Amino acid sequence: xxxxxxxxxxxxxxxxxxxxxxxxxxxxxxxxxxxxxxxxxxxxxxxxxxxxxxxxxxxxxxxxxxxxxxxxxxxxxxxxxxxxxxxxxxxxxxxxxxxxxxxxxxxxxxxxxxxxxxxxxxxxxxxxxxxxxxxxxxxxxxxxxxxxxxxxxxxxxxxxxxxxxxxxxxxxxxxxxxxxxxxxxxxxxxxxxxxxxxxxxxxxxxxxxxxxxxxxxxxxxxxxxxxxxxxxxxxxxxxxxxxxxxxxxxxxxxxxxxxxxxxxxxxxxxxxxxxxxxxxxxxxxxxxxxxx
Amino acid sequence: xxxxxxxxxxxxxxxxxxxxxxxxxxxxxxxxxxxxxxxxxxxxxxxxxxxxxxxxxxxxxxxxxxxxxxxxxxxxxxxxxxxxxxxxxxxxxxxxxxxxxxxxxxxxxxxxxxxxxxxxxxxxxxxxxxxxxxxxxxxxxxxxxxxxxxxxxxxxxxxxxxxxxxxxxxxxxxxxxxxxxxxxxxxxxxxxxxxxxxxxxxxxxxxxxxxxxxxxxxxxxxxxxxxxxxxxxxxxxxxx
Lengths: 292, 240
Known about the structure:
By secondary structure, chain A is mainly α. Chain A has eleven helices and two strands. Chain A has a single domain, classed as MetI-like fold, CATH 1.10.3720.10. In chain A, helix 3 packs across helix 5, helix 5 packs across helix 7 and helix 6 packs antiparallel against helix 7. By secondary structure, chain B is α/β, with parallel strands linked by helices. In chain B, the strands form three sheets. A five-stranded mixed sheet of chain B has the order 5-1-6-13-7. A five-stranded mixed sheet of chain B has the order 10-9-11-8-12, sandwiched between helices. A three-stranded antiparallel sheet of chain B has the order 2-3-4, covered by helices on one side.
């Protein structure tokens, strides 16, 4: 807006309208997209990893089963924050280390030198001269991987439990109708599993939403970063000086998260009603079930 | 907004000249007037100008990276960026882990700041300081109760909210807060001299880069341009 040219003479609403439309504030607004992007990418990956994890745990092939059990119990037993701090750093260094070995085999100096971690220029990930958004994108990918590993294990647990919760009689009935094991699994077991998994998964989605500020911990400029940065008191070095306004910015985040979880609760409530109705109808026809 | 879009596009599509080496400068972006993120969302301040000038003199292609203060040294040694330019004082402790160039800002005294009406013995009470700073180390040994905060801004907020009796920080950082507080905030007791001036932090193995930057600082000291920047950003400071 053209009246924003000299903020020092502005007052009241005009000042506020200019203040809230500074490029720095737009970084804040864009960072909400970062949160949505994280949720939209992580959720399907988590479902896939959860399904794979649950399948691994049910596998008749012992090493795979062991892997499934190890994965889920390891993530369950270690605090999330440790994982979020460990995975991105470890993965970043692993990738750079491998690239170093492949791209610069002629370098004889070790990668770990004292307290320094030095790979050749060609092995840097991303490359030294890559644009800033590439660097940010890379840390975002690392963050998504960390989120997926942690929440995938939780989902695997939920789905494993749900698969076991499907009444054996239903599967027996399917086999009695001549379904093969594969058909039973795909047409009866998995569709029925969702009914049992849904409450756990909706809970997981809520936890995932509430865990998104962990992005801030990973050095990604998310909504928490910008809220703190914009809210901090600003002296005359800034065009729009103001006292400590962190309270208002964090209040805005509070409302945002409350809205998001409230809306999610509505959606999952509807899904739950739809599927549990379906489920109880099926259970009602089974006298064995009814007698339990 | 248009400018931001253009600069992002420019950064994405203009490849660096063949001979210029890309150097990533890491700063905190929360320590005015040394470095801060201005209303345009860009790194600004004394160190922004010094850094850009040094890169120009050494014919380096430089990009700016923001990093939290408490992880600024670990992320340098693990190669996330190549230079720390964040108002970091040269100390023996830090020198064991990383390397420093010569100082580009002379030793600046540290001051205690508190709310008006606070008695002088508050410096022995609860004192706020930013984590991993010289000031935090000094407070811990001064007999006062140290409360540490991740960002400089939070140390000020702690004094205003009464969580801490006083804050100890670089005088140049606190000065603006005192000046603009209409007498609400005051300097307390005597100043303390800590540190040997502010230098650029580098990995110990990056000796070539260190020499280039040292030569740049020499040149800026010789032609007076460094002093000009110092007096521009720090009122009443004459520099070298």
